[in-house]
Amino acid sequence: MRWSNETMCALHLDFRTHARLKGFDYCSNNAYFVTAVTRYRSCVFGTVVDHSMQLSQRGVVVSQCLKDTERHHPQVKLDSFIVMPNHFHALIYIVENQVDATPASRSPQGGESRIRNGTAKGPAAKSLGAVVGSVKSAISREINKLRPGAARTLWQENYHEHIVRNTEALDRIRNYILTNPSRWQSDQENPDNNGKDQIQEFLDQLTLNNPPRCDDRDAGVASTGESFDNE
After folding, report:
1. Residue 89 lies in a domain
2. 99 contacts 105 by C-beta, under 8 angstroms
3. What range does the domain containing 34 cover?
4. Contact 69/135 with Cβ under 8 angstroms?
5. Pairing label, strands 52-55, 30-37
6. How far apart are CA 177 and CA 84, in angstroms?
7. How many CB atoms lie within 10 A of CB 213?
8. Which parts of 32-187 fold into alpha helices (H)?
9. What pairs with residue 46 in β-bridges?
10. pLDDT tens sequence across 19-68
11. Any domain includes 119
12. Residue 115: beta bridge partners?
């Protein structure tokens, strides 16, 4: 699903927020740029041929599970995404949580963690981390249906996220996602890359006109809390 800039602005997204802020509510209505990478950067989702992705059977599973995100998470809208040989990028909106959320449903950690007996136990329900963890787990389950145990060590535990700040950044992220296959030879996740395409540098450019405060961090690495022990 591709949303117009006008539609996204109508959601009242707060572009002034910064990723990994202490107390930031990751259940809140925002646009997020998410990247999840396979463990050991194993290229199991397909290959890039003539600047185009050729998905493997497992890559098809990843693509379908991403497309199913909205069906399983009504508070989520999926914009652009791409499945690469060993990772996926997705532009995700959380748009409805503020309507039905109650104080009791929110974590004191800003929607970032569930708290049990005073200890953080994974991401809060309906948060970005919960959504990404659910997608990764769904992909693993479906791949295991193809071959039992194939997804036991599929993922790196965490994922990278960046809060989209303005419509210019939105368009640049969409372009980055859709043109990722053409830059595969220089992609930092490519085990044989030449090191020129660094996603952190791209994200730094997005925030040049809206720099984080000294106590903020951008493009953080967040735990999803999912478990693959039984996969």
Report:
1. yes
2. no
3. 5-181
4. yes
5. unpaired
6. 10
7. 7
8. 57-67, 69-72, 97-100, 128-146, 167-178
9. 55
10. 444 566 778 888 999 999 999 999 999 999 999 999 999 999 999 999 99
11. yes
12. 120
Token duo for residue 153: 């060590």
| CATH number for 158 | 3.30.70.1290
Position 162 scores a pLDDT of: 87
Exposure class string for 175-186: b at 16+ Cβ within 10 A, else e: ebbeebbebbee
Residue 95 lies in a domain: yes
First to last CA, the chain: 30
| pLDDT tens, residue by residue, 61-97 | 999 999 999 999 999 999 999 999 999 999 999 987 6
Residue 94 near residue 14, CB atoms below 8 Å: no
Judged by DSSP in three states, 154 sits in: coil
Q: State the Cα–Cα distance between residues 52 and 223, nearest whole angstrom.
A: 30
Which positions ≥6 away from 118 have C-beta within 8 Å? none
Radius of gyration of the chain from Cα atoms? Answer: 17
Task: State yes or no: pLDDT of 107 exceeds 50.
Answer: no
Q: Which of 29-33, 97-101, 136-140 has the lowest mean pLDDT?
A: 97-101
Task: Count up the domains in the chain and report the number.
Answer: 1
Measure the CA–CA gap between 44 and 104, rounded to whole angstroms. 41
Distance CA 212, CA 16 (A): 9
Task: Report d(CA 183, CA 197) in Å as an integer.
Answer: 7
Q: Quote the tokens at residue 101.
A: 């959320």
Residue 52, both tokens: 């185009």
| Inside any domain, residue 19 | yes
